[in-house]
Amino acid sequence: MGDRIKLRVILGSTRQGRLGDKLAKWIHDLAKERGDLDVELLDLRDYPLPFLGEEARSASEPADKLIAAWATKVSEADGFIIATAEYNHGYPAVLKNALDSIKNEWSNKPVAFVSWGGVSGGARAVEQLRQVVVELQMVPIRNAVHIPFVWNLMDDDGSLKPEALNVHQEGAKNLLDQLVWWAKILKTARV
Fold first, then answer.
1. Helix, strand, or coil here: 71?
2. Which range marks the domain in which residue 166 is found?
């Protein structure tokens, strides 16, 4: 596993009724099909970080312990895919908070985006996120997957239609190819 790139897929929405869990799992599973990646899905629901300037939600999980657990997960990664919804032409506040909660752990690592939403497929949220990740010394890759009208890809029971994401498969594979290329280069440079 030493030569494999450690890729973390970050699910950036914690809203009830979100569709992102299905889309993050899709890109996660696609990445796992490759033999050169160690892939893990990081759902921000599992990392209930306090918003900056606020106390932790419970005494049993102090803020510094929650942030330290998040920092450990981020620091062990060689690259990231941020899977995000677009809400009101922007990205979720919980995602911004997760990015801002730590700093050095992001540095000199590549990041790609899978987004979804209405007509733009989340492209407006991704454009804003690119500005944020550059400030964190990350390397955003050009390739992204934007999925418009995501609710049309769901069956009545809320599952992804089997053929729904086929149109995005090639773009996702190109995204992964570019992300892995950058991750290898930057991993070597960080040593």
1. helix
2. 5-190
Residue 138: give its domain's CATH number.
3.40.50.360
Q: Which two tokens stand for residue 1?
A: 């596993």
- CA–CA gap between residue 152 and residue 92 (Å, rounded): 21
Task: Return the ∠ at Cα 107 (arms to 101 and 110), rounded to 5°.
Answer: 110
Tens digit of pLDDT for each residue in 65-119? 889 999 999 999 999 999 999 999 999 999 999 999 999 999 999 999 999 999 9
Task: Quickly tell me which residue has 């970080």 as its tokens.
Answer: 49
Domain count, the chain: 1
Q: Which one, of 11, 20, 2, lies nearest residue 147 by Cα?
A: 20
pLDDT per residue over 118-176, tens digit each?
Answer: 999 999 999 999 999 999 999 999 999 999 998 888 888 777 787 878 889 999 999 99
- Interatomic CA distance for residues 71 and 114, integer angstroms: 22
